[in-house]
Design goal:
The protein has one domain: Ferrous iron transport protein A (FeoA) (SH3 type barrels, Roll). The strands form two sheets. Strands 1-3-4-5 form a four-stranded antiparallel beta sheet. The protein has a two-stranded antiparallel ribbon with strand order 2-6. By secondary structure, it is α+β, with helices and mostly antiparallel strands.
Length: 69
């Protein structure tokens, strides 16, 4: 399922990132790597705040739709 549909405060693992190579590389640089643990800390209409590798990162819902957990 896409990360944008994940339940808040539940641990997930990134299974796949379905995005262009350029944007996928940017996400990899931020720590969004297949197999990494990720947790959604909060969600609103515009985006998500996620915890990945001990860092809090804000991403848009559009980007979160491309990250499969």
């Amino acid at each position: 399922m896409p990360l944008s549909l994940a339940t808040i405060n539940e641990d997930y693992r990134i299974v796949k990132i379905n995005y262009t190579e350029n944007k996928k590389q940017h996400l990899n640089d931020l720590g969004f790597i297949e197999g990494s643990k990720v947790k959604v800390l909060s969600s609103n209409m515009n985006g998500l705040i996620v915890l990945i590798k001990d860092a809090r990162i804000a991403i848009s819902k559009e980007v979160a739709m491309h990250i499969m957990v």
